[in-house]
């Protein structure tokens, strides 16, 4: 399916409107399409959707955007929203969608069987599709992995002027701080954030890849970044991307035996079924499809993320990062604590 | 001015025009027959332009009515839109459309009829204003006088019921104004156009108008021919505003005689002032002639050479000052004493 | 219209058709007010939540980040204001009134940075000047220095943001200043010379004050864009009001407090507008000459010519050539994958959206500006100001302001129809291109409005009256007198909005229908995934699509001289 032109979609919109107006509440017809609001970038989901259409004949209408904006749109459209599914790349927004009452439980046996419980909403309102880990990356030539242990340890004065991290505007950092609040409490999290800011090599700026590059060239020795950025750089054909990535290694913090041993901070991308879904059957088919071993493997191959399903082969690059234990905090908590995390970072002076 | 509105081309009856709270023109009455050219004359701020704009339909009237060719176009609460009145307007700065050629400007208001007829009308008007062949030129390529004639042709092209001219000569050279005014008058007369001119310059008014309304503070002080305004002004304002002159103290003797420093003066029309009343007598410079035989000797305070004559400012024995026009063949110096006489005075104008 | 002869007064009494009452003017004033209110709706919706108490959040903000927001926003405005002023006015004066090698090229080339979205230029310079970028790497290779051995200005900083924004926003000032210099009567400048001013003195004491309203208008536009910028400051880690709004809204889930921040931002904007109005009032006095002589340019030689060349080359080089070159290099490396089959449809979508929005904005701007001229009441005036407010409001805020009322309307209608007829109408407005176009209109109307208005003020009222007295209705006056006289201004308005919409991202992202992407969306998706090079083709195409109108624009300015100056 190719994207329609302006005139096409105008005609489409008009005729759909007309049809709706004339036909009244939709009659039970075989569902031939599913409407998807996705915070996952088109590049990173379209190939899967195309394959789904090939296999099932169900057309997928895609609208990408920022999670917050899509959620806002879903909320304001209410029961008339055309969206059947909402995909986000963090658990926080899935939790927000659930709290706003715009989702409904996904009660499908195969889904529950495929995904571990901490990667699902307790009430079944959302389910994770892939796991994204935010470990500590270190410069191989300047840091000995034996010196590293936990996120909490990053505030130690020996790291003064040696850490790079992006701005606190970013949801990955907000979620990370939320996980620290969940683990250690607000006060400890604020002390930690202050300590981290004091150890920064430069004011927060740029994205995760920029932190990796800065660590590679020696502007700092440690970087906090999501693994799939590192994987993406390592797999790139462009030496300007590949070479800095090669200078860094992954350290999995808070593993059993380190601190509280709660595991490395992870977030997920996930999907929720909207309360207004008109194409419920088709939508659930798509959710199932996204959780098939084939689709799960694709995330790891193409975007360096970890599958939520057990026993899926991951890419050699990810294998190279080694195995890890993930924080088993239910990810809905990240959403609940997000606002608190932002205020903690504001007070800590994390730009 | 009790003309029936439908028999006149332009009629104003009891018109007030308001600018917010302020009445810019009040109780205006006049009527023009077809082809008549009138002038509203007055100092700036007297309300004459406001009145013109009310006739054009740009300002509503607060009271009274305006009739144009037998049709009521303005009354309180109803204002026929300017574009529906068929009035032409000539603006101070001409307001030619810079994006259109001369022919385009002239043809702008011609919207009905075939192209051939439009072209013919444009050619006719170009001929009329003496710019035949200049149709393809653009306004910025023309001199001020040419621009004005184009603006005139543009206003006349749709054959308006009336032409309104708002200080049309003020942006032109002073020396050429009177001449242009006469040219335009001839042109309007040839076309039989009813016109209202607004100006503060009496020479323009004299050169162009059949009738003149002298305005001050929103009112028409006097409505009449130039001759009447000059020789029989209705009040002191008109007397001072039109022409030059001085006012001398006098005493009424009887029905037609007044005693003044210049002797006993007789009037042409009898008046009803009682004997013994003190009045002011208007003395125009041409009322006072140089007469060496005259017993009245006046001292020259100032003189202005004007070609055909001298204009002297004189002091009479009582100290009162008067103006006198004398042929320029004879020259007197400032300080000289000359004899003057008011014997030939025809129009005796008295103010109480 | 026929002439009615010898009619009795009664027969000629006004009929409804013939007489234009004052009341319709009031009605059209009301219509304009409603239209303006509608266009201001997105902003008003956002401001509506100002009344919701959020003192808790404010205490937190005031004690932590608010001082930073205020300081950074003010410094940013000051920096960009000065930057655009110097670059814009300097280059406009040089290209208009001086002769030096390359002048004719610079005349239009200086507008090119306008086609460069601020967030894209920020990406490219980061790629170039970062510690890991080619410039610093080259420096280290040459000198053998390592990290910490040398000082290099940080591009991702407040001064960096000032530089980026100044480089892409100065064309607004250049454009308007140049038009003003061109329309100035040579005689006025020559009077300045005869009164003992040198070329520089004549510029400073005569040309500059005369062009001031235009220059202030240009700087105001640039500053409004600056306040609305999110992409650049966010990427550079500079906390401003706009980043603060998003942080409070989305990060802390406090829409009311975010709206209150947005309201504070609008206070900045209103101040700007008032300043601009104040200086516009004097525009009436400029440019009264009836005829123009061609401009006699100062001939620059030697160092003077070299200096002028240099001054004009710098903004062009850094505002366009370098970043466009970087984009071209990136596009080249991605040529195989970047320009896929969908690329054409993305481009067509972008072009048709921008074209539609530009046309719509032009029509509405013309309507409003004309209403203001025809019915100069305070109701109409303030309505028109209200309608132009959206320009300084970040696109995402506008998007939410469109989303909420449209969805509310859709749902209310749907509920009523269901209850009354048992028929569901669903969403008639939400998620349509209409909603998106409406958002563009709310956001960019100010651009076309300002351009049309400034053009309209140059047409004297006597021109309208002459046309009316020649039998034209107001609408016909618009079409037959104003539109031709305004041709230059209208084209400018059209092109400015076109370029703005091509570059627009946040509202497009939030409001577009299913399966409908634009170049800006594509570039953003890749760039925000930190794949700058992959974003190259789309970004380059945005720049190229923006180039066409920019070049047209500069050509029309050069030609419009005698048409635009009545």
UniProtKB/TrEMBL annotation, chain B:
<protein>
    <submittedName>
        <fullName>ABC transporter ATP-binding protein</fullName>
    </submittedName>
</protein>
<dbReference type="GO" id="GO:0015408">
    <property type="term" value="F:ABC-type ferric iron transporter activity"/>
</dbReference>
<keyword id="KW-0547">Nucleotide-binding</keyword>
<keyword id="KW-0813">Transport</keyword>
<dbReference type="GO" id="GO:0015697">
    <property type="term" value="P:quaternary ammonium group transport"/>
</dbReference>
<keyword id="KW-0408">Iron</keyword>
<dbReference type="InterPro" id="IPR013611">
    <property type="entry name" value="Transp-assoc_OB_typ2"/>
</dbReference>
<keyword id="KW-1003">Cell membrane</keyword>
<dbReference type="Pfam" id="PF00005">
    <property type="entry name" value="ABC_tran"/>
</dbReference>
<dbReference type="InterPro" id="IPR050093">
    <property type="entry name" value="ABC_SmlMolc_Importer"/>
</dbReference>
<dbReference type="InterPro" id="IPR003439">
    <property type="entry name" value="ABC_transporter-like_ATP-bd"/>
</dbReference>
<keyword id="KW-0406">Ion transport</keyword>
<dbReference type="InterPro" id="IPR003593">
    <property type="entry name" value="AAA+_ATPase"/>
</dbReference>
<dbReference type="GO" id="GO:0016887">
    <property type="term" value="F:ATP hydrolysis activity"/>
</dbReference>
<keyword id="KW-0472">Membrane</keyword>
<feature type="domain" description="ABC transporter">
    <location>
        <begin position="10"/>
        <end position="242"/>
    </location>
</feature>
<dbReference type="InterPro" id="IPR015853">
    <property type="entry name" value="ABC_transpr_FbpC"/>
</dbReference>
<dbReference type="InterPro" id="IPR008995">
    <property type="entry name" value="Mo/tungstate-bd_C_term_dom"/>
</dbReference>
<dbReference type="InterPro" id="IPR027417">
    <property type="entry name" value="P-loop_NTPase"/>
</dbReference>
<dbReference type="InterPro" id="IPR017871">
    <property type="entry name" value="ABC_transporter-like_CS"/>
</dbReference>
<dbReference type="Pfam" id="PF08402">
    <property type="entry name" value="TOBE_2"/>
</dbReference>
<keyword id="KW-0410">Iron transport</keyword>
From TrEMBL, chain C:
<feature type="domain" description="ABC transmembrane type-1">
    <location>
        <begin position="347"/>
        <end position="553"/>
    </location>
</feature>
<feature type="transmembrane region" description="Helical">
    <location>
        <begin position="535"/>
        <end position="553"/>
    </location>
</feature>
<feature type="transmembrane region" description="Helical">
    <location>
        <begin position="477"/>
        <end position="499"/>
    </location>
</feature>
<dbReference type="GO" id="GO:0005886">
    <property type="term" value="C:plasma membrane"/>
</dbReference>
<dbReference type="InterPro" id="IPR035906">
    <property type="entry name" value="MetI-like_sf"/>
</dbReference>
<dbReference type="Pfam" id="PF00528">
    <property type="entry name" value="BPD_transp_1"/>
</dbReference>
<feature type="transmembrane region" description="Helical">
    <location>
        <begin position="343"/>
        <end position="370"/>
    </location>
</feature>
<keyword id="KW-1003">Cell membrane</keyword>
<comment type="similarity">
    <text>Belongs to the binding-protein-dependent transport system permease family.</text>
</comment>
<keyword id="KW-0813">Transport</keyword>
<keyword id="KW-0812">Transmembrane</keyword>
<feature type="transmembrane region" description="Helical">
    <location>
        <begin position="421"/>
        <end position="441"/>
    </location>
</feature>
<dbReference type="InterPro" id="IPR000515">
    <property type="entry name" value="MetI-like"/>
</dbReference>
<feature type="transmembrane region" description="Helical">
    <location>
        <begin position="300"/>
        <end position="323"/>
    </location>
</feature>
<feature type="transmembrane region" description="Helical">
    <location>
        <begin position="150"/>
        <end position="175"/>
    </location>
</feature>
<keyword id="KW-0472">Membrane</keyword>
<feature type="transmembrane region" description="Helical">
    <location>
        <begin position="106"/>
        <end position="125"/>
    </location>
</feature>
<feature type="transmembrane region" description="Helical">
    <location>
        <begin position="391"/>
        <end position="409"/>
    </location>
</feature>
<feature type="transmembrane region" description="Helical">
    <location>
        <begin position="26"/>
        <end position="54"/>
    </location>
</feature>
<feature type="transmembrane region" description="Helical">
    <location>
        <begin position="74"/>
        <end position="94"/>
    </location>
</feature>
<feature type="transmembrane region" description="Helical">
    <location>
        <begin position="256"/>
        <end position="275"/>
    </location>
</feature>
<dbReference type="GO" id="GO:0055085">
    <property type="term" value="P:transmembrane transport"/>
</dbReference>
């Amino acid at each position: 399916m190719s994207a329609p032109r302006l005139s096409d979609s105008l005609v489409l919109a008009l005729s759909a409107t007309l049809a709706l107006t004339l036909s009244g509440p939709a009659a039970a017809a075989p569902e031939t399409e599913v409407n998807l609001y996705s915070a996952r970038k088109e590049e990173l989901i379209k190939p899967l959707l195309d394959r789904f259409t090939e296999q099932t004949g169900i057309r997928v209408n895609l609208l990408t955007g920022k999670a917050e904006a899509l959620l806002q749109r879903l909320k304001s459209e209410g029961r008339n929203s055309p969206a059947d599914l909402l995909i986000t790349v963090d658990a926080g927004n899935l939790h927000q969608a659930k709290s706003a009452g715009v989702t409904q439980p996904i009660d499908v046996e195969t889904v529950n069987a495929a995904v571990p419980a901490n990667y699902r909403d307790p009430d079944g309102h959302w389910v994770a599709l892939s796991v994204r880990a935010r470990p500590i990356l270190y410069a191989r030539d300047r840091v000995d992995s034996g010196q590293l242990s936990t996120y909490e340890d990053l505030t130690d004065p020996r790291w003064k002027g040696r850490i790079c991290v992006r701005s606190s505007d970013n949801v990955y950092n907000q979620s990370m701080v939320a996980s620290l609040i969940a683990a250690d409490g607000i006060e400890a999290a604020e002390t930690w954030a202050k300590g981290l800011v004091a150890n920064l090599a430069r004011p927060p700026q740029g994205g995760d890849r920029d932190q990796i590059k800065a660590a590679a060239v020696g502007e700092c020795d440690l970087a906090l970044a999501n693994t799939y950025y590192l994987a993406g750089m390592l797999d790139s054909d462009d030496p300007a991307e590949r070479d800095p990535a090669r200078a860094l290694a992954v350290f999995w913090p808070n593993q059993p035996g380190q601190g509280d041993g709660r595991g490395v901070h992870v977030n997920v991308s996930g999907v929720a079924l909207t309360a207004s879904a008109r194409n419920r059957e088709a939508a659930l088919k798509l959710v199932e499809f996204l959780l098939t071993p084939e689709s799960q493997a694709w995330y790891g191959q193409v975007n360096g993320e970890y599958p939520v399903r057990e026993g899926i082969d991951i890419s050699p690059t990810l294998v190279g990062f080694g195995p890890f234990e993930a924080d088993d905090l239910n990810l809905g908590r990240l959403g609940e604590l997000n606002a608190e995390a932002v205020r903690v970072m504001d007070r800590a002076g994390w730009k | 001015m009790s003309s029936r509105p439908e028999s006149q081309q332009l009629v104003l009856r009891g018109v007030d025009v308001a600018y917010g709270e302020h009445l810019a023109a009040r109780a205006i009455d006049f009527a023009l027959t077809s082809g008549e050219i009138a002038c509203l004359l007055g100092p700036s701020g007297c309300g004459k332009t406001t009145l013109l704009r009310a006739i054009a339909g740009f300002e509503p009237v607060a009271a009274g009515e305006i009739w144009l060719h037998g049709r009521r176009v303005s009354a309180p609460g109803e204002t026929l839109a300017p574009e529906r009145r068929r009035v032409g307007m000539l603006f101070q700065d001409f307001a030619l459309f810079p994006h259109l050629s001369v022919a385009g400007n002239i043809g702008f208001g011609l919207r009905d009829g075939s192209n051939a007829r439009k072209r013919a009308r444009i050619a006719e008007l170009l001929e009329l204003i003496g710019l035949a062949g200049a149709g393809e030129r653009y306004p910025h390529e023309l001199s001020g006088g040419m621009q004005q004639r184009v603006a005139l042709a543009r206003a006349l092209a749709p054959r308006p019921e009336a032409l309104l001219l708002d200080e049309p000569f003020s942006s032109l050279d002073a020396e050429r104004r009177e001449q242009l005014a006469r040219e335009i008058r001839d042109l309007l007369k040839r076309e039989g156009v009813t016109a209202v001119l607004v100006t503060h310059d009496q020479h323009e008014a004299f050169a162009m108008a059949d009738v003149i309304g002298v305005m001050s503070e929103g009112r028409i002080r006097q409505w009449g021919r130039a001759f009447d305004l000059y020789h029989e002004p209705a009040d002191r304002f008109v007397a001072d505003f039109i022409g030059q002159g001085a006012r001398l103290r006098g005493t009424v003797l009887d029905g037609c005689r007044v005693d003044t420093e210049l002797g006993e003066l007789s009037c042409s029309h009898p008046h009803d002032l009682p004997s013994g009343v003190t009045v002011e007598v208007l003395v125009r410079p041409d009322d006072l002639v140089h007469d060496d035989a005259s017993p009245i000797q006046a001292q020259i305070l100032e003189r202005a050479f004007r070609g055909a004559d001298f204009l002297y400012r004189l002091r009479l024995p009582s100290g009162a000052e008067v103006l006198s026009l004398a042929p320029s063949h004879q020259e007197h110096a400032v300080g000289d004493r000359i004899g003057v006489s008011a014997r030939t005075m025809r129009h005796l104008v008295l103010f109480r | 219209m026929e002439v009615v002869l010898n009619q009795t007064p009664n027969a000629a009494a006004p009929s409804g058709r013939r007489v234009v009452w004052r009341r319709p003017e009031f009605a059209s004033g009301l219509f304009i007010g409603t239209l303006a209110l509608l266009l201001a709706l997105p902003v008003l919706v956002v401001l509506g939540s100002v009344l919701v108490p959020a003192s808790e959040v404010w205490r937190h903000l005031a004690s932590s980040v608010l001082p930073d927001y205020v300081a950074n926003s003010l410094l940013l405005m000051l920096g960009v204001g000065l930057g655009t002023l110097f670059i814009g006015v300097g280059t406009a004066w040089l290209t208009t009134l001086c002769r030096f090698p390359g002048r004719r090229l610079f005349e239009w080339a200086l507008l090119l940075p306008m086609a460069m979205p601020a967030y894209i230029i920020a990406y490219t310079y980061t790629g170039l000047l970062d510690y890991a970028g080619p410039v610093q790497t080259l420096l280290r290779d040459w000198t053998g220095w390592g990290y910490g051995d040398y000082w290099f200005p940080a591009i991702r900083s407040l001064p960096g943001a000032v530089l980026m924004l100044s480089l892409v926003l100065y064309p607004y000032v250049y454009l308007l200043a140049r038009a003003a210099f061109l329309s100035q009567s040579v005689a006025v400048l020559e009077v300045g010379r005869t009164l003992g001013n040198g070329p520089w003195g004549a510029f400073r004491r005569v040309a500059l004050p005369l062009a001031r309203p235009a220059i202030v208008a240009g700087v105001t536009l640039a500053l409004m864009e600056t306040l609305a910028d999110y992409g650049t400051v966010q990427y550079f880690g500079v906390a401003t009001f706009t980043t603060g709004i998003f942080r409070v809204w989305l990060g802390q889930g406090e829409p009311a407090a975010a709206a209150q921040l947005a309201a504070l931002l609008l206070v900045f904007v209103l101040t700007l507008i008032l300043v601009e109005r104040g200086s516009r009032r004097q525009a009436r006095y400029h440019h009264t000459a009836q005829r123009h002589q061609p401009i006699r340019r100062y001939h620059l030689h030697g160092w003077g010519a070299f200096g002028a060349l240099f001054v004009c080359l710098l903004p062009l080089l850094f505002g366009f050539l370098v970043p466009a070159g970087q984009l071209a290099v990136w596009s080249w490396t991605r040529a195989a994958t970047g320009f896929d089959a969908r690329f054409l449809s993305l481009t067509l979508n972008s072009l048709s959206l921008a074209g539609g929005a530009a046309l719509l904005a032009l029509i509405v701007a013309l309507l409003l500006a004309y209403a203001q001229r025809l019915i100069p009441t305070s109701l109409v005036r303030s309505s028109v100001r209200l309608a132009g407010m959206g320009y300084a409001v970040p696109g995402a805020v506008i998007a939410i302001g469109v989303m909420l009322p449209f969805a509310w309307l859709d749902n209310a209608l749907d509920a009523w129809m269901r209850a009354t007829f048992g028929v569901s109408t669903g969403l008639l407005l939400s998620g349509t291109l209409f909603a998106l176009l409406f958002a563009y209109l709310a956001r960019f109307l100010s651009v076309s409005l300002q351009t049309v208005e400034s053009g309209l003020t140059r047409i004297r009222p006597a021109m309208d009256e002459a046309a009316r007295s020649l039998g034209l209705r107001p609408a016909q006056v618009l079409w037959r007198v104003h539109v031709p006289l305004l041709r230059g201004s209208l084209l400018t308005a059209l092109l400015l909005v076109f370029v703005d919409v091509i570059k627009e991202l946040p509202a497009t992202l939030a409001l577009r229908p299913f399966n409908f992407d634009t170049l800006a969306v594509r570039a953003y998706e890749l760039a925000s995934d930190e794949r700058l090079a992959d974003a190259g083709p789309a970004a380059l195409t945005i720049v190229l699509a923006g180039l066409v109108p920019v070049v047209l624009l500069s050509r029309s300015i050069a030609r419009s001289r005698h048409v635009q100056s009545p």
